[in-house]
Amino acid sequence: MNKNLLNFMLNIQKKQGFLYKLILSVNELYIKSFLSGQLGPSKGYAEAFSAGGEEFVIRVLGASGQAKVCDFFKYSIKAGGPDYVMPHKTDAGSIEKIFKMVSHIPLGIFHNDDLVGYALIRLLFPKRASYAIFVSDKWQGKGIGTAALGKQLDLIRKLKFEPHSAVSKKNARSIKMLKKLGIEYTDDLGDYFEVKDRNGA
Q1: What is the per-residue pLDDT across 99-156, written as a single tens digit (0 to 9) for each?
Q2: Where are the domains of the chain?
Q3: What is the DSSP string of 140-156?
Protein backbone atom coordinates (compact mmCIF):
# COMPACT_ATOMS: atom_id res chain seq x y z
CA MET A 1 0.00 0.00 0.00
CA ASN A 2 1.21 3.52 -0.75
CA LYS A 3 2.87 5.17 2.28
CA ASN A 4 0.83 8.39 2.03
CA LEU A 5 -2.42 6.49 1.53
CA LEU A 6 -1.85 4.29 4.57
CA ASN A 7 -0.94 7.23 6.81
CA PHE A 8 -4.01 9.08 5.50
CA MET A 9 -6.23 6.08 6.34
CA LEU A 10 -4.71 5.69 9.81
CA ASN A 11 -5.29 9.39 10.50
CA ILE A 12 -8.91 9.01 9.37
CA GLN A 13 -9.28 6.05 11.72
CA LYS A 14 -7.87 8.02 14.65
CA LYS A 15 -10.30 10.90 14.02
CA GLN A 16 -13.17 8.52 13.21
CA GLY A 17 -15.12 11.29 11.50
CA PHE A 18 -17.53 11.40 8.54
CA LEU A 19 -15.12 10.00 5.94
CA TYR A 20 -14.21 7.09 8.20
CA LYS A 21 -17.90 6.30 8.75
CA LEU A 22 -18.56 6.50 5.01
CA ILE A 23 -15.72 4.06 4.24
CA LEU A 24 -17.04 1.67 6.92
CA SER A 25 -20.58 1.87 5.51
CA VAL A 26 -19.51 1.11 1.93
CA ASN A 27 -17.30 -1.75 3.09
CA GLU A 28 -20.11 -3.13 5.27
CA LEU A 29 -22.48 -3.14 2.27
CA TYR A 30 -19.90 -5.05 0.22
CA ILE A 31 -19.29 -7.72 2.90
CA LYS A 32 -23.01 -8.09 3.59
CA SER A 33 -23.99 -8.27 -0.08
CA PHE A 34 -21.29 -10.45 -1.53
CA LEU A 35 -19.41 -12.28 1.21
CA SER A 36 -21.73 -12.91 4.16
CA GLY A 37 -22.32 -16.49 3.00
CA GLN A 38 -18.59 -17.22 3.35
CA LEU A 39 -18.36 -16.25 7.03
CA GLY A 40 -19.46 -19.65 8.38
CA PRO A 41 -16.16 -20.46 10.17
CA SER A 42 -16.64 -17.43 12.44
CA LYS A 43 -20.05 -18.55 13.71
CA GLY A 44 -19.62 -19.91 17.21
CA TYR A 45 -15.83 -19.85 16.84
CA ALA A 46 -13.95 -20.79 20.04
CA GLU A 47 -10.40 -22.12 20.45
CA ALA A 48 -8.57 -23.09 23.64
CA PHE A 49 -4.87 -22.34 24.06
CA SER A 50 -2.18 -22.29 26.74
CA ALA A 51 0.14 -19.42 27.66
CA GLY A 52 2.34 -18.82 30.69
CA GLY A 53 1.17 -22.06 32.29
CA GLU A 54 -2.49 -20.98 32.18
CA GLU A 55 -5.45 -22.05 30.03
CA PHE A 56 -7.39 -19.54 27.91
CA VAL A 57 -10.14 -19.49 25.31
CA ILE A 58 -10.51 -17.05 22.42
CA ARG A 59 -14.05 -16.88 21.07
CA VAL A 60 -16.39 -14.73 19.01
CA LEU A 61 -18.35 -12.41 21.26
CA GLY A 62 -22.11 -12.16 21.03
CA ALA A 63 -24.24 -9.19 22.08
CA SER A 64 -23.85 -10.17 25.73
CA GLY A 65 -20.12 -9.40 25.48
CA GLN A 66 -20.60 -5.70 24.75
CA ALA A 67 -20.59 -4.57 28.40
CA LYS A 68 -17.48 -6.65 29.10
CA VAL A 69 -15.64 -4.98 26.20
CA CYS A 70 -16.67 -1.52 27.46
CA ASP A 71 -15.32 -2.38 30.92
CA PHE A 72 -12.18 -3.89 29.41
CA PHE A 73 -11.24 -0.64 27.66
CA LYS A 74 -12.23 1.40 30.70
CA TYR A 75 -10.41 -0.54 33.39
CA SER A 76 -7.98 -3.09 31.93
CA ILE A 77 -5.65 -1.24 29.55
CA LYS A 78 -3.92 2.12 29.44
CA ALA A 79 -4.78 3.76 26.13
CA GLY A 80 -2.62 6.58 24.89
CA GLY A 81 0.63 7.54 23.26
CA PRO A 82 1.61 7.90 19.62
CA ASP A 83 1.92 4.14 19.09
CA TYR A 84 -1.64 3.40 20.15
CA VAL A 85 -4.30 3.23 17.41
CA MET A 86 -7.78 2.41 18.66
CA PRO A 87 -9.66 -0.16 16.59
CA HIS A 88 -12.86 1.86 17.11
CA LYS A 89 -14.40 4.20 19.66
CA THR A 90 -14.91 2.46 22.98
CA ASP A 91 -18.07 4.06 24.36
CA ALA A 92 -21.09 1.79 24.77
CA GLY A 93 -22.91 3.11 21.68
CA SER A 94 -19.91 2.63 19.37
CA ILE A 95 -19.24 -0.87 20.68
CA GLU A 96 -22.89 -1.80 20.14
CA LYS A 97 -22.58 -0.71 16.48
CA ILE A 98 -19.40 -2.75 16.00
CA PHE A 99 -21.13 -5.85 17.34
CA LYS A 100 -23.91 -5.42 14.75
CA MET A 101 -21.59 -5.10 11.75
CA VAL A 102 -21.09 -8.15 9.52
CA SER A 103 -17.63 -6.88 8.52
CA HIS A 104 -16.39 -6.76 12.13
CA ILE A 105 -15.73 -9.91 14.17
CA PRO A 106 -15.11 -9.11 17.86
CA LEU A 107 -13.32 -11.78 19.88
CA GLY A 108 -12.80 -12.14 23.60
CA ILE A 109 -9.84 -13.80 25.29
CA PHE A 110 -11.02 -15.46 28.50
CA HIS A 111 -9.30 -16.91 31.53
CA ASN A 112 -12.12 -18.83 33.22
CA ASP A 113 -14.95 -16.27 32.99
CA ASP A 114 -12.72 -13.19 33.06
CA LEU A 115 -12.17 -11.19 29.87
CA VAL A 116 -8.40 -10.67 29.80
CA GLY A 117 -8.07 -9.63 26.16
CA TYR A 118 -9.98 -8.27 23.19
CA ALA A 119 -9.31 -8.91 19.51
CA LEU A 120 -10.98 -7.57 16.40
CA ILE A 121 -11.00 -8.80 12.82
CA ARG A 122 -12.15 -6.25 10.27
CA LEU A 123 -13.02 -7.69 6.86
CA LEU A 124 -12.13 -5.34 4.04
CA PHE A 125 -12.72 -5.06 0.30
CA PRO A 126 -11.86 -7.13 -1.65
CA LYS A 127 -10.55 -10.07 0.47
CA ARG A 128 -8.26 -8.51 3.06
CA ALA A 129 -8.63 -8.53 6.81
CA SER A 130 -7.05 -6.18 9.31
CA TYR A 131 -6.59 -7.29 12.88
CA ALA A 132 -5.95 -5.80 16.30
CA ILE A 133 -5.38 -7.42 19.67
CA PHE A 134 -5.20 -6.02 23.21
CA VAL A 135 -4.28 -7.84 26.42
CA SER A 136 -5.11 -6.53 29.89
CA ASP A 137 -2.20 -4.73 31.55
CA LYS A 138 -2.10 -7.21 34.42
CA TRP A 139 -1.82 -10.17 32.00
CA GLN A 140 0.97 -8.71 29.87
CA GLY A 141 4.25 -10.56 29.34
CA LYS A 142 2.83 -14.09 29.58
CA GLY A 143 2.65 -14.86 25.85
CA ILE A 144 -1.15 -14.53 25.75
CA GLY A 145 -1.17 -11.96 22.94
CA THR A 146 1.15 -14.04 20.73
CA ALA A 147 -0.83 -17.26 21.22
CA ALA A 148 -4.21 -15.53 20.74
CA LEU A 149 -2.98 -13.66 17.65
CA GLY A 150 -1.95 -16.99 16.12
CA LYS A 151 -5.52 -18.23 16.59
CA GLN A 152 -6.91 -14.97 15.21
CA LEU A 153 -4.77 -15.27 12.06
CA ASP A 154 -5.88 -18.91 11.65
CA LEU A 155 -9.52 -17.77 11.69
CA ILE A 156 -8.80 -15.09 9.07
CA ARG A 157 -7.26 -17.73 6.82
CA LYS A 158 -10.23 -20.08 7.36
CA LEU A 159 -12.45 -17.25 6.13
CA LYS A 160 -10.27 -17.13 2.97
CA PHE A 161 -9.10 -13.58 3.67
CA GLU A 162 -5.54 -12.29 3.58
CA PRO A 163 -4.31 -10.94 6.94
CA HIS A 164 -3.01 -7.44 6.41
CA SER A 165 -2.19 -4.73 8.92
CA ALA A 166 0.10 -1.90 9.94
CA VAL A 167 2.09 -1.46 13.13
CA SER A 168 3.65 1.66 14.57
CA LYS A 169 7.45 1.63 14.62
CA LYS A 170 7.17 2.71 18.26
CA ASN A 171 5.13 -0.36 19.18
CA ALA A 172 8.05 -2.68 20.01
CA ARG A 173 5.78 -5.19 21.80
CA SER A 174 3.59 -5.76 18.72
CA ILE A 175 6.59 -6.03 16.39
CA LYS A 176 8.16 -8.64 18.68
CA MET A 177 4.86 -10.56 18.86
CA LEU A 178 4.55 -10.65 15.06
CA LYS A 179 8.13 -11.84 14.66
CA LYS A 180 7.45 -14.72 17.06
CA LEU A 181 4.71 -15.83 14.66
CA GLY A 182 7.05 -15.57 11.67
CA ILE A 183 5.37 -12.41 10.37
CA GLU A 184 7.65 -9.47 9.70
CA TYR A 185 7.00 -6.08 8.20
CA THR A 186 7.16 -5.95 4.42
CA ASP A 187 7.24 -2.21 3.73
CA ASP A 188 8.53 0.84 5.56
CA LEU A 189 5.75 3.45 5.49
CA GLY A 190 7.30 6.23 7.53
CA ASP A 191 5.74 6.07 11.00
CA TYR A 192 4.43 2.56 10.36
CA PHE A 193 5.47 -0.81 9.05
CA GLU A 194 3.06 -2.54 6.69
CA VAL A 195 2.54 -6.13 7.78
CA LYS A 196 1.43 -8.88 5.41
CA ASP A 197 0.88 -12.56 6.03
CA ARG A 198 3.77 -14.60 4.61
CA ASN A 199 2.05 -17.90 5.38
CA GLY A 200 -0.58 -17.43 2.68
CA ALA A 201 -4.35 -17.63 2.90
Answers
A1: 999 999 999 999 999 999 999 999 988 888 888 888 998 998 899 988 998 999 899 9
A2: 40-164
A3: TTSSHHHHHHHHHHHHH
